[in-house]
């Protein structure tokens, strides 16, 4: 949790701030708010556990915390001095509420460790699955507001399963830790990295379009290849761009996973992303009333392949977003006549005894 580390660097203790014992500057309060937001459903429970060594539910802890703050204020007013949150907590819960016995105060460093581990993966130190998915949803909302692009990466280690099976899980764990360190060194300060599960890792590149992301991901892939060449581990990456490829977090994950799968099909150690492709058809005499472009990229669905007419160029057009690979397609004219694309030079069997056009999209 970077915000918590920054607080500690500047000499602040989180408990002192949230209890009102310390009045922080605006920028420090912002860091505190981020810690509370990221911790989410267990913040107040962990807070009271730190102060009393007793565990309460989050809902109950939230209520008790407000009562403790009121108790602290009243006692401080009567004594004419601030009694501090620890004294107020123990007095209220032990003497007034009778909820605890023999309380034990947990060191602040352990509390910080508890907060940190609730947001990070204990093996790699990267954000855990819950938090990285929350970061992705937040990135969608933020970039929608800013009208900015960002890219999401789904990364997977090539050769990791074989190494894990033959060398053992301890070696596999060491590799994952090394991978996490390489990712920290290869990404920018504002990039967000989290462990999705197993050897799958999600990356979020804020305010970054696909072209810039290609450069960043290429650096990551090359660095990984160089550092792990002795164990023959490489990295496959599936990349998607918001909002051109998808505009919702679940769809981004689905498409990034699809792109990653295509990277694996191409042998791994590559970056796979969606390529914008424009196909056109022109027929002047007679002018068609309707044209569809159908192929295995849209499961030969005529409705999905419906083309739009451009009056300026007198062409029928369709925009496609395709991963690397070879695709078959045909044009359907006025719902009855099938023809191939005469603008291409590659043709194949359409599977129905006829000929179809071939479209090849390269990986890079």
Automatic annotation (TrEMBL):
CDD domains named in the record: GGDEF
Pfam families on file: AMPK1_CBM, GGDEF
Domain of life: Bacteria
Stretches assigned to the GGDEF domain: 148-276
InterPro entries per UniProt: AMPK1_CBM, Diguanylate_Cyclase, GGDEF_dom, Ig-like_fold, Ig_E-set, Nucleotide_cyclase, Rev_trsase/Diguanyl_cyclase
One MF term in the entry's GO annotations: diguanylate cyclase activity
Positions in coiled-coil regions: none
PANTHER family: DIGUANYLATE CYCLASE DGCM-RELATED, REGULATORY COMPONENTS OF SENSORY TRANSDUCTION SYSTEM
Protein name, per record: GGDEF domain-containing protein
Source organism of this protein record: Candidatus Desantisbacteria bacterium CG1_02_38_46
């Amino acid at each position: 949790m970077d915000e918590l580390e920054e607080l500690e660097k500047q000499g602040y203790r989180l408990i002192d701030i949230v209890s009102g014992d310390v009045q922080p500057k605006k920028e420090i309060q912002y860091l505190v708010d981020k810690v509370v937001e990221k911790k989410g459903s267990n913040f107040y429970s962990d807070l009271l556990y730190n102060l009393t060594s007793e565990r309460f539910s989050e809902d109950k802890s939230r209520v008790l915390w407000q009562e403790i703050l009121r108790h602290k204020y009243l006692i401080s007013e009567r004594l004419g001095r601030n009694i501090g949150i620890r004294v107020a907590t123990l007095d209220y819960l032990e003497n007034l509420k009778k909820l605890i016995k023999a309380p034990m105060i947990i060191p602040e460093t352990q509390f910080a460790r508890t907060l940190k581990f609730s947001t990070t993966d204990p093996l790699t130190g990267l954000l855990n699955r819950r938090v990285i998915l929350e970061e992705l949803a937040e990135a969608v909302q933020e970039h929608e507001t800013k009208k900015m692009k960002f890219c999401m990466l789904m990364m997977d280690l090539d050769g990791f399963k074989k190494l894990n099976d033959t060398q053992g899980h301890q070696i596999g764990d060491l590799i994952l830790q090394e991978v996490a360190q390489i990712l920290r060194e290869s990404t920018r300060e504002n990039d967000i990295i989290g462990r999705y599960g197993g050897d799958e890792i999600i990356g979020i590149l804020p305010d970054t379009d696909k072209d810039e992301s290609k450069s960043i991901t290429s650096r990551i892939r090359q660095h990984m290849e160089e550092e792990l060449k002795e164990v023959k581990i490489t990295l496959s990456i599936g990349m998607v761009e918001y909002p051109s490829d998808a505009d919702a977090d679940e769809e981004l994950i689905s498409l990034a996973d699809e792109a990653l799968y295509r990277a694996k099909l191409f042998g791994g150690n590559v970056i796979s992303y969606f390529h914008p492709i424009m196909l056109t058809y022109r027929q002047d005499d007679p002018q068609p009333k309707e044209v569809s472009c159908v192929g295995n990229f849209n499961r030969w669905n005529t409705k999905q392949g419906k083309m739009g007419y451009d009056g300026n160029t007198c062409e029928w057009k369709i925009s496609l977003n395709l991963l690397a690979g070879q695709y078959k397609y045909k044009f359907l004219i006025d719902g009855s006549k099938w023809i191939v694309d005469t603008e291409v030079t590659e043709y194949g069997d359409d599977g129905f005894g006829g000929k179809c056009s071939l479209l090849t999209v390269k990986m890079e």
